Amino acid sequence: MQLVVDSPSFGAAPLLRELRQPFAFNHFKRAVLGDRHVPGEPQTAEVMAVFSQVGMKNCMDDRTWTGWFSDQPPTAGKKAVANLDRYFDKLRRLGYPAALSPGAPPSSFYADLTDTGLVEQLLRRTKAKRAIKELLYRASVYKATSPCHLHLDAIECASLYFEGGEVACDQLKAIAAQRVLELIYERWKPGQGSVYKELPSSLKIRWDRSDDQGKESIRQFFAELIPDRFEVRMSEAPSPDWIGVGANRDFAASDIHKALFLLAADVDFLVAERFDAWVLDLVSAGIAAYALAQTNPGAWEPFGLSPTCRYWNGIRALFFSAEQYLDVEEHLARPFSRAGGEFTDDVERNLLAARASYWNWLEGLGLSARKISDLAGFASLYPQVFVGTSAGCGN
User: Fold this and answer.
1) Nearest Cα to Cα of residue 276 among 350, 348, 370, 343
2) 158, 395 contact by CB (below 8 A)
3) Cis peptide upstream of residue 227 (ω within 30 degrees of 0)
4) pLDDT tens digit sequence for 203-220
5) What CA dihedral angle connects 358, 361, 365 and 368, to 10 degrees?
6) Is the pLDDT of residue 91 over 60?
7) Cα–Cα dist 303/294, whole Å
8) Helices (H) and strands (E) in the chain, counts
């Protein structure tokens, strides 16, 4: 038996040219040009100069690069995209600090952005007699290269729509969305999440923000302790106050969007890189939860959303509704309180700052909240409220 997706647009990643390619090429350009980066513009001469500086002058054709930023870009060739990863691989071999920092793109970062993804892997043909079992297996072994890749996976889950084939669209969408939620949960699972070792300790953040006198004071404080635990405290993994924000430490993967929503109350944890990591995974979890709800008729009531859906709807409203349509009381305060948290001024400030941070991040990649809303299909619910058009999912 073969899993056949009856759609000509699924020969590669479903949103390859609409989302993945613009994301990848703007991401690369921003990484190499820094403050000179102009989102959505090829800046061909400057990019070619960057390649030349590390001895890769002939690795990229300027017409190819410029074409990727055109109104109707061609599908990027694998060899051409591989040169973006080769650039950072070469910087690492040469010992450039920018390529050795924790935020530098890992190997295959750009190839994985444009050539694969969770939904693309699920849509590949199979000769398995039990297609669902094969899909569940593929999902279970899938690992996203980075939170950026996971974010695009979530958007593709929500946008997925097709007719025909051995497996219904809702079945495949549910498998994909559940896997995205599981992967985000694995990052943020209380006490065991992989994200914590990637984030700076509270002492490290305080140290980085201190002047020389402040650093001397910190060092003197620890020197007076026996034993001196300065190095231990500098490298220890931070941990959110899940109980303090109203979340159950034993929450399930399916509730990760709710837990991350409540985490807005932990003002001590959400600082520096921790805040940035939280924002992206919060949005990804909200989109994935929405995609999963699309496959569950019980999530929708005759006159609106069921109570269990109001958390992702709050996330949706925060990040994807036009400013004049964001009702703080309805979209944020009520679901936050219903989830078990206390909606304070600090919570509101954190959530609105998260909105601004996400929008700025998208803008730097040549994208917008309106674009993501259209792709994810949010506008199909209440077109007059949501950013974007009234096009349905998958359009």
Assistant:
1) 350
2) no
3) yes
4) 999 998 999 998 999 988
5) 30
6) yes
7) 16
8) 20, 2
What are the boundaries of each domain within the chain? 8-188, 200-236
The residue type of 183 is L
Q: Which pair of tokens denotes residue 330?
A: 């309805």
Say which DSSP state 300 is in. E
Retrieve residue 203's tokens. Answer: 């002492």
User: What predicted TM-score, i.e. pTM, was given to this entire model?
Assistant: 0.89
| CA-based nearest residue to 165, from 295, 2, 291, 292 | 2
Q: Which residue has the higher pLDDT, 126 or 379?
A: 126
CA distance 185 to 255: 9
Locus of tokens 């910087």: 91
Q: Which amino acid is located at 124 in the chain?
A: R
SS3 label, residue 4: coil
Q: Which helix (H) or strand (E) holds 223?
A: helix 212-223
The rounded percent of the chain whose pLDDT value lies above 90 is: 58
Contact yes or no for 353/335 (Cβ under 8 A): no
The pLDDT of residue 153 is: 96
**Residues 353-381, mean pLDDT to the nearest whole number:** 88
User: Per-residue pLDDT for 339 more than 90?
Assistant: no
